[in-house]
Specification:
Layout (H helix, E strand, L loop, with lengths): L5 H4 L12 H12 L6 E5 L6 H13 L18 H7 L6 E5 L6 H11 L9 E6 L6 H12 L5 E7 L7 H4 L3 E4 L5 H14 L6 H10 L4 H14 L6 H8 L4 H12 L3 H13 L4 H20 L11 H8 L4 H20 L3 H14 E3 L5 H5 L48 H4 L2 H7 L31 H13 L5 H9 E7 L5 E6 L7 H15 L5 E5 L7 H22 L1 H9 L3 E3 L8
Parallel strand pairs: 1-4, 1-5, 2-3, 3-4, 8-9
Antiparallel strand pairs: 6-10, 7-8
Helix pairs in contact: 3-4, 5-6, 8-9, 8-10, 9-10, 9-11, 10-11, 12-13, 12-14, 13-17, 14-15, 14-16, 16-17, 20-24, 22-23
The structure holds zinc ion (ZN).
Length: about 600
């Protein structure tokens, strides 16, 4: 015997079997019992919710002849007479279903309406069901309207649509309208439990909970997913298998993201996405679970104790609800919800998820405590070159920015770069100060403040010189080859090449502002490194005092500032960010939280 899919096998055949549509069922039952029949019905609601099923039961109610052939119109069709069995079997001559999505033109409707001219062949009523009726062309609607205005006694119309707003008002006004509701996940879950019991399929509550949610209000989808899950699990259901099939993600991942956002811990966010990717877990599933979690947190915050105690997810939602202010929960919910659409557009869903989480990190409602500011600097997101560059000293804002406001949740500071082996006063370079400056902007900065047009006043100005490119390129090579370290490296980065005289041996003059770097020992180290890099038998360096305009360090800082501004401009112009700022009046972009990659 061939396998009959569950959605078909368990399709309700009577009003009593319909799940979750009590209002519609009650109204139709009363109307049938009292023989108050309308000539046109309109069923609205999302897909897979039972519109066609109701239409078929209605057609059976109108045409049932009862088991002994003597029955009349009834709210409880017998299920065994010719009308009942043939409508169930999709072969009753007087019941016609037309899908307007594929038959929307005037010719199809004319053809249908021509048939309306003839009395029913065997039944009491002809029932015409037009599914997705909103897709009919205007011409078709108008043709239909004429028949709807003066229908023959024996004709009943059932229109079904997922989008009633697209129906002509003149059509709507001639129909008795019923709105079928999306089913609550618990209801789908209960029904699935009954079906699986009848099918003798072993299952657990957690799998059914997942399937109930994944059905998104549609019992048909719930049953189809259950079919797939049974096939996936080799005849049985268990939560890991169902989770894998649905691409859904254990709530602990979502909870970790929310925790990291509450702690402004960018490093933890990135680590979380990596963990998902490594384990082959779906980014969309994680985002969806996060949306659900935030929604539950919002409920807990608004009505403490409202979440059911016996739900396994309640405990974590309560714990996290205490970590965030309500407006921030709402904001994160919106960002996660909008992010779901965006995820489909991202070339790589995990990269898409990273962007969504970073965007969430960049937001904080007004009134968040200022300590957050110093916590919004996820070291992992600092520009990559900073890792080897000397101005990278600046990647450690803690050395310049005040630290007492830091809480335990703050991002762990990065380890000092290996070349920093001197007392702190040696590393407090002008470059360091400059790169920290954007972070020092006041918390009360206006919401969508334009990115700063020029570097902060204390930033050293870069004025490119003729030899600047050559020198910066050479120093970069020294760095890559790890030929200089510690203060010799600092000397290279803080100096400006002002003259090159041909040799032999060649003589180069370097201008260096800081006296502490103009030592013979450092000069000799740098000379040796340069000669080695260039393959020269000898080289002479002269260090001179003077104010510099173009050092490798300044170039690095300038490049970092350029990329920072670029990143800020992208975020400030991001349509979603603008929308969020408009929707959430208390939201603002946390200064300094935007970091270029
Ligand atoms: Zn019957």
């Amino acid at each position: 015997m061939s396998y009959v899919v569950l959605a078909r096998k368990y399709r309700p055949r009577s009003f009593a079997e319909m799940v979750g549509q009590d209002a519609v069922v009650r109204a139709l039952t009363h109307a049938l019992e009292q023989q108050r029949l309308h000539h046109a019905y309109l069923f609205t609601g999302t897909r897979g919710i039972g519109k066609t099923t109701v239409s078929r039961i209605l057609a059976k109610s109108l045409n049932c002849t009862g088991a002994d052939g003597s029955g009349g119109i009834t709210a409880t069709p017998c299920g065994v007479c010719a009308a009942c069995t043939e409508i169930d079997g999709d072969r009753y001559i007087d019941y016609i279903e037309l899908d307007a999505a594929s038959n929307r033109g005037i010719d199809e409707i004319r053809d249908l309406l021509e048939r309306a001219a003839y009395k029913p062949s065997i039944g009491r009523f002809k029932v015409f069901m037009i599914d997705e009726a909103h897709q009919l062309t205007k011409e078709s609607f108008n043709a239909l309207l004429k028949t709807l205005e003066e229908p023959p006694e024996y004709l009943k119309f059932v229109l079904a649509t997922t989008d009633p707003e697209k129906m002509l008002p003149t059509v709507l006004s001639r129909c008795l309208q019923f709105n079928l509701r999306p089913m609550a996940p618990e209801l789908v879950q209960q029904h699935l439990a009954q079906v699986l019991k009848a099918e003798c399929v072993t299952h657990d509550d957690a799998s059914l909970r997942l399937l109930g949610r994944a059905a998104r209000g549609s019992m048909r989808d719930g049953l189809s997913l259950t079919d797939q899950a049974i096939a996936f699990g080799g005849g049985r259901l268990d939560v890991e298998g169902v989770r894998a099939m649905l691409g859904s993600v254990d709530r602990s991942h979502a909870a970790n993201f929310v925790r990291a956002l509450a702690a402004r811990d960018g490093r933890a966010l990135l680590g979380g996405v990596d963990a998902l990717r490594e384990r082959g877990l779906s980014a969309a599933g994680a985002l969806e679970e996060m949306t659900r979690l935030l929604q539950q947190m919002a409920i807990e915050q608004a009505v403490p104790g409202a979440l059911p105690d016996d739900e396994p997810d309640t405990a974590v939602a309560r714990e996290l609800a205490a970590l965030l202010p309500t407006d921030e929960t709402q904001l994160l919910y919106s960002l996660a919800l909008h992010g779901r659409q965006e995820l489909n557009l991202a070339p790589d869903p995990h990269a898409g998820l990273t962007m969504i989480l970073l965007r969430a990190l960049a937001f904080a409602p007004a009134g968040s405590e200022p300590t957050r500011l110093s916590q919004t600097i996820p070291a992992a997101m600092a520009p990559k070159p900073a890792a080897q560059a000397p101005a990278a000293v600046a990647a450690q804002p803690a050395r310049v920015a005040p630290t007492p406001a830091r809480s335990q949740t703050a991002v762990r500071e990065p380890e000092p770069p290996s070349w920093i082996d001197e007392p702190p006063d040696e590393i407090e370079t002008a470059g360091g100060r400059a790169a920290v400056a954007p972070l020092a902007r006041p918390v009360s900065a206006p919401v969508a403040a334009p990115p700063p047009a020029s570097p902060p006043p204390e930033a050293p100005v870069l004025r490119p010189t003729p030899l600047g490119d050559v020198w910066a390129g050479l120093v970069a090579r020294l760095e890559q080859g790890q030929r200089v370290a510690a203060l010799a490296r600092e000397l290279a980065l803080q100096s400006e090449l002002v003259e090159q005289q041909a040799g032999p041996p060649p003589l180069w003059r370097l201008r260096v502002e800081r006296e502490s770097l103009r030592t013979a020992a450092l000069r000799d180290k740098l000379t040796a490194a340069l000669a080695d890099e260039l393959g020269l038998p000898a080289l002479r360096l002269e260090l001179e005092d003077g104010s510099v305009q173009d050092t490798p360090a300044r170039r690095i800082v300038a490049e970092r500032q350029r990329r920072q501004q670029e990143a800020e401009q992208i975020i400030h112009a991001d349509p979603l960010v603008l929308q969020m700022l408009a929707e959430f009046k208390t939201a603002r972009i946390v200064p300094g939280s935007i970091k270029p990659h």
